[in-house]
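Thread: Newbie trying to understand structure tokens

Hi all, I'm a second-year student working on a class project, and my supervisor (Dr. K.) asked me to get a predicted structure for one chain before our next meeting. I've only ever worked with sequences, so writing a 3D structure as a token string is new to me. If someone could post the tokens and maybe explain what I'm looking at, I'd be very grateful. Here's the chain:
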Amino acid sequence: MTPPVCLILGAGAGIGGHVAKRFARDGYHACVARRSDQAGLDKLVAEINATGGSASGHLLNAVEEGSIEQLVTSIEADLGRSAWTFEPDLRARSDLAWWNHAPNPDLK
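---
Reply by user tm_fold:
Sure, no problem. This is what the structure looks like when written as tokens:
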């Protein structure tokens, strides 16, 4: 059975790396991604795998076309297509999310 997967974007030495380690410790496969520093990424993945967790690392380049597609393809190769669930949140940058909007009756 494929383990549950968490995708951590911005997995550096701080919060992102610690979140990845925590999910890996709880049985998730941690897919960690960052924009630069291959050595730091490799170190984080090695630390997670050395402590009994499961992780893979991916470099992203927002300027490079196809970077996100490469990430998806790589994760699918590691874990299979069942690793994905997409929940897009499409709105204008200036729009407030439904959960953060004053007229929302749940926020009273």
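A couple of things are worth pointing out once you decode it. Residues 5-85 form a domain with the Rossmann fold fold (CATH 3.40.50.720). The mean pLDDT is 76. Feel free to ask follow-ups in this thread.
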